[in-house]
Design brief:
Layout (H helix, E strand, L loop, with lengths): L4 E2 H12 L22 E14 L2 E13 L6 E4 L10
Parallel strand pairs: 1-2
Antiparallel strand pairs: 2-3, 3-4
Bound molecules: zinc ion (ZN).
């Protein structure tokens, strides 16, 4: 899995958001109540900066990050596209 994205990745991702094709199925089940992720509802979009590679240089691009909400317990979970997995420190 690449650590950074290309502009094509971002474009494809934005297209998914536009067409409402971001689905929660790939998320883990709710860590709080165990509800299956496929029942999660879209909660909010949050603008986030992504790093992408353009002509061998790193540039930043803003794209929305989708947040889902567990309808059972109210816990919210962010959906990260493949190219933007959260950094683990
Ligand atoms: Zn839950």
């Amino acid at each position: 899995m690449p650590p950074t994205a290309t502009r094509e990745d971002i474009t494809a991702y934005l297209e998914l958001i536009e067409k409402d094709q971001i689905k929660p199925h790939r998320l883990p089940d709710c860590t709080q109540c165990g509800l299956a992720a496929c029942y999660f509802k879209i909660h909010a979009y949050r603008e986030r900066r992504f790093l992408i590679i353009v002509d061998m240089t790193v540039q930043s691009e803003y794209a929305p990050l989708v947040r889902f909400r567990c309808p059972a317990c109210g816990k919210t979970v962010s959906f990260y596209p493949d190219f933007a997995l959260p950094h683990k420190h």
